[in-house]
Design brief:
Length: 62
């Protein structure tokens, strides 16, 4: 497998797991502070994963 394919596969796994956890948190946690923290952490995870994947795609194109 190429490095790009591994990066894409890893990004899908990370975002899938993070999405499951944020939905679980929003559904089961009663504290608004914890819900807000979960959304912030998910957003950070999403942005980091997408930027990392974009960098890998740019590196693979050269």
């Amino acid at each position: 497998m190429t490095a790009l394919a591994i990066s894409i596969f890893t990004a899908i796994i990370i975002l899938g797991a993070a999405t499951f956890l944020i939905f679980w948190t929003l559904d089961n946690v009663k504290s608004e502070a914890l819900k807000t923290a979960g959304i912030i952490i998910y957003g950070f995870c999403f942005i980091t994963t997408v930027v990392t994947l974009a960098v890998e795609v740019i590196k693979a194109s050269f």
